[in-house]
Amino acid sequence: MKKPFIVGNWKMNLTLKQGVEFAGLLKNSLYGKREIICGICPPFVFLKEICKILEDCNVCVAAQNIHSERNGAYTGEISALMVKEVGCTHVLIGHSERRHIFHETDSFINAKIKMALSVTLKPIFCIGETLEERESGRTKEVIQNQLKGGLHDIRADRLKELVIAYEPVWAIGTGKTALPGQANEVHAFIRNTVADAYGKDFATSLYIQYGGSVKPENAKELMAQPEIDGLLVGGASITFESFLKIIEAVSKD
Ligand code: PGA
């Protein structure tokens, strides 16, 4: 049995003071809790301070993004090595807001995943269909293309630490959660697609998180689905109280 992997994505929210307070509370609450793996994704400028608070404890810190190049003339961008250097272990790649607001393509996402792996940052690779794609019956095709594009030319032995987050775009920040069964079905499809490319053992051990309007009220039911190994939480991870409620809902039998 895998331990549930619950990650909070703060997006562009909170002040540094609030973030620091949150990290301290989370550290204390998770002290000695071994049945769950937890992580948070603070904005870039909070990372150093928050990684310091959470070092030597069981909460991972992920950056929300990186650039695909190692270094160079990319004004305003942040490299994989930079976030690694301040203590991040993970990085979100291909979040739907990056894909849709900032027009990130599958090939750019693929280059970022390769860059993350080259500095041993663990990618949380986000995929998911839009409402229009779902309604026109193209969910599987879209998921397959995103997987193929994002993981292009990367060997299985380099992907041991990969996490995939299935986040239907129509469920992100909308209050509309995918029905647990609906999410489970896509997770099973993702796992099968990955198994075809990388083998069954790889696919079985792969973590696949669900994201999209996860709340304390639906976390347990989502996690009860056999193909859901974790949750990527946006809005409900911004206050410590609701994030803790999700963690508690998931850790209880
Ligand atoms: P949400 O966001 O929980 O607010 O829907 C999820 C995400 O964007 O990762």
Describe the structure.
Helix 1 (16-30) packs parallel to helix 2. The protein is globular. It has a single domain, classed as Aldolase class I (TIM Barrel, Alpha-Beta Barrel), CATH 3.20.20. The chain has helices spanning 16-30, 47-54, 80-85, 96-100, 106-118, 131-135, 139-150, 180-198, 200-205, 219-223, 240-251, and strands at 5-9, 37-41, 59-63, 90-93, 122-127, 163-166, 207-211, 230-233. It is an alpha/beta fold and 253 residues long. Bound molecules: 2-phosphoglycolic acid (PGA). The site of 2-phosphoglycolic acid has 13 residues, from strand 8.
What is the fold's blueprint, element by element?
Blueprint: E1 5-9, H1 16-30, E2 37-41, H2 47-54, E3 59-63, H3 80-85, E4 90-93, H4 96-100, H5 106-118, E5 122-127, H6 131-135, H7 139-150, E6 163-166, H8 180-198, H9 200-205, E7 207-211, H10 219-223, E8 230-233, H11 240-251
Helix pairs in contact: 1-2, 5-7, 7-8
The protein binds 2-phosphoglycolic acid (PGA).
2-phosphoglycolic acid is lined by residues 9, 167, 172-173, 211-214, 232-236.
